[in-house]
C-alpha cells in the first residue's frame, strides 16, 4: 500500500490551500496537506462510467454530481472559509442541498462521496477519509476498488456512525441509498 506522493504536516487551512499551484492535486485533512499523483487510465474509466450512470439518473432532478477535481470544504457550521482545515477532492461527489454550492465548489457535507482506490490513495481512502467522512456526516461513502472489482458502501446509521460496509462484486447491481431508485450496474463500471 503506497503512501500519497507527498505529506506535509502542519496546521494548514483553506486560506493556504488556495495559494498552492493549481496544477497539483492537494487535499487537507485536519490541517495536514496531502498531494496525490494523477489517476491511472483504469481509474478514469471507472470514474467516467460511475459519473455517466449517476448523471443520467439526475437529469431533471435537483441533486448535482461532480467529478474531481472539485473542492469540498468540510467546514463546521458557520466556519469562515479561510479557517477550514478539511478540504478534499473526492473522485465523485453528489450534493442535493444547493445552498452548499458556490463558485469554489461545495461548503459542507455532500450527500454521497465515492473514492476510487489507487495504490497511492488506499491509505487515504480506507483510513483517513473514512474517518473524516463519518465525522463530517457524509450520508453515504463508497470505496470503489478497480483492481479487485469490489465496492464497499458505508451509510450513516441511526447513531450517526458508519456501520459495517455493504460489499459488492462486479456481478452486482447496487442501489444508491440516498435515492429511491438509482441502481448502479457494477458490470458496466468494471467493464474493460
TrEMBL record:
Putative restriction endonuclease domain span: 15-176
Regions that span the bilayer: none
MF-aspect GO terms: endonuclease activity
Highest taxon of source: Bacteria
Pfam families membership: Uma2
Keyword match Thylakoid: no
Entry annotated with the keyword Cell inner membrane: no
Keywords, in A-Z order: Endonuclease, Hydrolase, Nuclease
Protein's recorded name: Endonuclease, Uma2 family (Restriction endonuclease fold)
Lineage: Bacteria, Bacillati, Bacillota, Clostridia, Thermoanaerobacterales
